[in-house]
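lol forgot to send this yesterday, sorry. struct tokens for the thing we talked abt
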């Protein structure tokens, strides 16, 4: 069966992002390997403390993360991760944590399809939409 898994790339800040997502979204860390943990044949160079591969789950959804400090692509992400919460209070709680040093795309609001919606780019450059259905 084909699976689609978001894979987020950071420039040396994956561990900090994981901590933020744990606090704000209840992310569970399923795997975290640094360059020091990697087989040298897989990743022969690089700083030993940066994230070689990590897997988190948010409400059962798998997301991969890694550090790519030498990635030539700009630190922009042409996608977002949308998290649907049960209540507006849950959205507000996550938003309060994630808004620090974030760029707000759409402020918290009621929309045609959501009683509580906010869109932001977090301090790591990842775009998130937080909403109720």
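and heres what i got for the seq, position by position
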């Amino acid at each position: 069966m084909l699976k689609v898994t978001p894979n987020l790339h950071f420039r040396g800040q994956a561990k900090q992002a994981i901590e933020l997502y744990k606090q704000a979204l209840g992310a569970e860390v399923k795997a975290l390997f640094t360059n020091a943990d990697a087989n040298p044949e897989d990743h022969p160079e690089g700083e030993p403390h940066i994230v070689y591969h990590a897997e988190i789950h948010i409400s059962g959804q798998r997301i991969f993360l890694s550090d790519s400090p030498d990635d030539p692509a700009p630190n922009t992400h042409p996608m977002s991760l949308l998290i649907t919460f049960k209540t507006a209070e849950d959205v507000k709680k996550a938003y309060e944590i994630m808004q620090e040093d974030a760029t707000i795309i759409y402020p918290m609001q009621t929309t045609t399809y959501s009683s509580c919606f906010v869109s932001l780019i977090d301090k790591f450059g990842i775009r998130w939409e937080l909403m109720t259905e």
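The helical segments are 14-25, 88-98. anyway ping me if u want another try
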